[in-house]
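Today's session is about reading a structure prediction critically. Students often jump straight to the picture, but the first step is always the sequence itself: look for stretches that repeat, for charged clusters, for runs of hydrophobic residues. Only then move on to the predicted structure, which in these notes is written as discrete structure tokens rather than atom positions. Here is the chain we will use throughout the hour.
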Amino acid sequence: SSKIRDLLAQVNELYNDIVLEPGEKLNNDYVDRILHLKVKMIYDAGRDRETMARWEEKEYPNGKLAYFFNETGLLNMINEIGDSRKKFIDYCKYFEALVAYHKYFGGKE
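Below is the predicted structure for this chain, in token form.
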């Protein structure tokens, strides 16, 4: 879950930059940064699987982080953002809500 918090910090950093931008269409720099976030998520999910305990492999064959991304749709949602400022802001709110929900219901810090 520290990896999820790190990713949330990156999402929030990007959000802070984008929310100040006028207009509904994001420039290519922001679109590239959003796509880079997806690459980072995939990389972190792969690394997470490598550090998983043997007994967890049966329940999470692709790793806990990959399971989280698949169940929540966070990875696929990035593809839908495109250059839409509104879609990215909605994505940020959803990501933050998921992390808060996870923490509230006993997830590790």
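Discussion point for the tutorial: The chain has a mean pLDDT of 89.
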